[in-house]
Amino acid sequence: MRLGVNIDHIATVREARKTYEPDPVKGALIAQDAGADQITFHLREDRRHIQDEDVFRLRCTIKRIPLNMEMAPTEEMKKIAVDLKPERVTLVPEKREEITTEGGLDVVSMEEYLKDYIKELKENGIAVAVFIDPEKNQIDASVEVGADAVELHTGEYANSTSESKKEKELIRLKEAAKYAKETGLDVFAGHGLTYTNVQPVASIPEIEELNIGHSIIANSIFWGLEEAVRKMKRLISDVRKGL
């Protein structure tokens, strides 16, 4: 299983003081050297953390592993992605007032718009994933719009406060991952995953990649970023050995 390390919150700390440190590009290099399989970042419309300059420095700096650019499906972001040429774009919903992404993209309601939008990205050599709730109709729509992959939103699972609710959400993720794989899509997952809840999701065989940011960056305060990445990678690897 691949681990994508989301570096957004390195920039969150920097932007709290509007200074030059900590540098998310330096963080990306440390994550790469610690065993990350991908660097993920979300260039938001309000630029609350990652900035345009960061993403182009990332493109010039990160060479050994892919870049995964999370972005809202807007014309502004498409232009930036075409100029940047990350290995993958992940289309996500975005609301200015939210603290973090609150759910999956409603691909069903955006089907006609997304067909042309995704086509242009793919014509420029960029693979496209859509970040969706683990629902069959959203998976079907993702196939229709030409996505290469889905990233299943794990937030409901991660935020569940009861074991019964957590188990119910885990079953939803398992069923969605199996169904998505059967349609021919690559299957990824992420959102709210931590060192204490990641292994049940990592044990779903159809999921081939997890994108994790906040927990890794938060714990790097205590362990250092290199060790934080290594620990998450070990947790994921240990569970996959038994599959």
Q: Helix tally?
A: 11
Name of the CATH superfamily: Aldolase class I
Percent strand equals 15-25%
Largest sheet: 8 strands, parallel, barrel
Average of per-residue pLDDT values? 95
Helicity, as a percent range: 40-55%
CATH architecture descriptor: Alpha-Beta Barrel
The CATH C-level class name? Alpha Beta
Strand order of the largest sheet: 1-2-3-4-5-6-7-8
- Report the C-alpha radius of gyration, rounded: 17 Å
Number of domains: 1
Low-confidence stretches: none
Order of helices and strands: EHHEHEHEHEHEHHEHEHH
Tally of DSSP β-strands: 8
State the distance separating the first and last CA atoms.
11 Å
The class by helix and strand makeup works out as alpha/beta
**CATH overall fold name:** TIM Barrel
How would you describe the overall organization of this protein?
Helices cover 48% and strands 16% of the residues. The protein contains eleven helices and eight strands. An eight-stranded parallel β-barrel has the order 1-2-3-4-5-6-7-8, surrounded by seven helices. Helix 3 (52-61) links the parallel strand 2 and strand 3. It is globular and about 45 Å long. The model has no long low-confidence stretch (mean pLDDT 95).
Keywords:
single chain, 243 residues, alpha/beta, TIM Barrel, 8-stranded parallel barrel, 11 helices
Furnish the topology, listing elements before pairings.
Blueprint: E1 2-6, H1 8-17, H2 24-33, E2 38-42, H3 52-61, E3 67-71, H4 75-84, E4 88-91, H5 111-123, E5 127-132, H6 136-144, E6 149-153, H7 155-158, H8 163-182, E7 186-190, H9 198-202, E8 209-212, H10 214-223, H11 225-240
Parallel strand pairs: 1-2, 1-8, 2-3, 3-4, 4-5, 5-6, 6-7, 7-8
